[in-house]
Amino acid sequence: MAASSKASSNVWGAVYVPARAFNAPQFWRNYNPDEAKRDMGFAASVNVNALRVWVSYEYWQAAPNEFAAAFDDFLKKAWARKIRIMPSLFENCGTDPTEENMWTTDPTKAFAIRSPHKAEIVDNPRRWGGPRKFVEWFMDRYGNDRRVLAIEVMNEPFPEESKRFARAMMAAAAAMRGSVPLSLGGASADMNLYFLDCGIDVFQVHDNFPKNEQEFRQKIEAAQRAGRVCGKPVWLTEWQRIRPTSGGWYQGEKLPERQLMPDLASLAPVVRSLGMGAFFWSLMVKPAYLPGQRHNGTINGLFWEDGSVWSLADARAIAGDPKAAFEERRGWPDWAPPKKWRG
Question: Is CATH 3.20.20.80 what the domain over 5-341 is classified as, yes or no?
């Protein structure tokens, strides 16, 4: 069931990973109801009404009951604050889901977890049964849950092998379709087109670090045109700041120090002007999610764990309130000092 255009344009969200979790397995194994309640309060204080999160196929395999209990509580805490959740079932970015990679908290080694394992599962159709079972379990349990905004089947599936896997998982989800729309973490407009015949309801586009406003508008408006042609709403599910030097995705890129810091205020007015659902990266201040950005020194986010914000201008821009009052604090997480992970 496709989301309506009006409802889609009212989505004002954030990407969420708890402050000290480096990846989805850590998020759910270490789930803390009090932390979730606190962070929902932070989100509500800046008028965020949706959170995009990654679930964890690997943790579900290891502890299905514990995962279900944690996710159910998370939905409950969000709903109490009138926040809806968009879970992403699989992640194509990051490092392989080995035991070491999933559970290390060393900021030089702890990154996003690619899920499921690409070489062992994604590239091997004979092993898709496990992930398909997860999709079916998730759809059966949450496919008609009004607290769930949409179900994102996979984030940024590329190259071809990942697209084939994601198509199969999208088809499995569509076969059990409920009232919750299906989506895909599309880095660009064209990525969504591979899923038109599989049941996609909502297109996504990502643009974290455009060089300037013109470049940003061109990419997002192209995605909006694709959505209009195909009759699908389009959400911008990753955006951060204008970064004039370069995107900084590859280890070794040199960027000015100020461009490695959050600056949501540099893009928020443009995002609002586009009249579309959008999710900024990220609610909590954290070292970057991906290896290249992390090694280059990027830090993302808005809120510290004590409720202060990295940037008052950013908080006001997200809240849409130029007089919103927050304590501003710059620095580095004491649990991830910069000397351990920056450059």
Answer: yes
